[in-house]
Amino acid sequence: MRISDLIADFIGEMLEDTGGQTEIQRADVASRFGCVPSQINYVISTRFSPEHGYVVESRRGGGGYIRIRRVQADPAQMVMHTVNAIGDVLDEKTARAFLSNLVAAGALDAGSEHLIMAAIGDYALRPVEKPVRDMVRASIIKQMLTHFIQ
Fold first, then answer.
1. What value, to the nearest 5°, has the Cα angle with vertex 110 and ends 109 and 115?
2. Which of 71, 85, 124, 138 could form a disulfide with 50 if both were Cys (CB 3.0 to 4.6 A apart)?
3. What topology does CATH give the domain 3-70?
4. CA atoms within a 13 Å half-sphere pointing along the CA-CB vector of 9
């Protein structure tokens, strides 16, 4: 098992033990796993990001911390959180992560996930010029997700 997997599992267990919110100090966690603090940043940014259903806050400095909170909401709130987190551009990989998280949270069914991915995938958007493709994808997915909560 890779160190990033071990760190992610450790943070995940902390979240489970504390009801979905925890605070960590990068230096403490890095010391525990014998890695550099930037490794902790990497794990948090790749495994505990908004598209995975988390909100991360941090404060730098000597008494600094990183607070990680799992978004716990009803399905409509989860969808709106996702719509707000998308922004103006969205690549296919990140779109898939957002949708997968919604399915895992029970806010979207697998059939709807497949339908949305079919509509926003690179193959479907191939007539759209690459420089604007991610903007079009973001717009389409936001419209489709918003439709699910109306």
1. 100
2. 85
3. Phenylalanyl-tRNA Synthetase; Chain B, domain 1 (3.30.56)
4. 7
